């Protein structure tokens, strides 16, 4: 498994522990030992991810039974599972056959025979033109050799009017990681580029998409990962007092009267990721 944060189970919404269900209460998570994935999922919901009541995978990106959703770089499948549970036809795509097989098994549990999974490179998608109504591609462009080519493929498979949910690691926190992460973090198959906010928007616009919103989230994870590298723990079991204390601290902040406002300000300053919701004309 690559060591980059967006490939880890606890780092991004589409990798969380069954993010398609209602987010667990933060207090419950901390009572179970300050589990960062659960606290991070709650934090993500506050940022607009996995809105069950409105069936939005992210605010402004609703999912319904008439949708065909393609998740390119689906990972453990949190996002595509959310969409399948909302009745959409789901197509999961990833380079890792083992991870993809697990995601496909979960999709089959929801509705056998309705959903697809393909092992494929993001720059050559095995799908026809104008195939999907919703396209998700989160934390992928920083890994690939030609981001513009990948965006071109995403646009190709979208129908007219298709909606896109795209994200990349934010440049400020990536530059923070440069000071604390091992060199491998910025080598293939991990991150091979840092994408500035303006550059991200430029790429999306140049691909022919209309940007409807650009936002940011995940200050919690920016700090968590900066601490992680110093703790010398296994990524699969990141149990360390420093990480537990940071998780509990963030829980206390979110529980405070001004917690949401502080979170929003810090998310704008040094988020884990930039998010764009866009539309194909």
Structure commentary:
The protein has about 280 residues and is of the alpha/beta class. The protein has one domain (about 5-280): Rossmann fold (3-Layer(aba) Sandwich), CATH 3.40.50.150. The chain is built from 10 helices and 10 strands. It has helices at about 25-30, 35-45, 80-85, 95-110, 145-155, 170-180, 195-205, 220-230, 240-255, 260-270; strands at about 50, 55-60, 60, 70, 90-95, 115-120, 130-140, 160-170, 210-215, 275-280. It has a 7-stranded mixed beta sheet, with helices on both faces. A hairpin with a 2-residue loop joins strand 2 (about 55-60) and strand 3. Helix 8 runs antiparallel to helix 9 (about 240-255). The longest helix is centred in the last third of the chain and has 15 residues, at about 240-255. It is globular, with a radius of gyration of 18 Å.
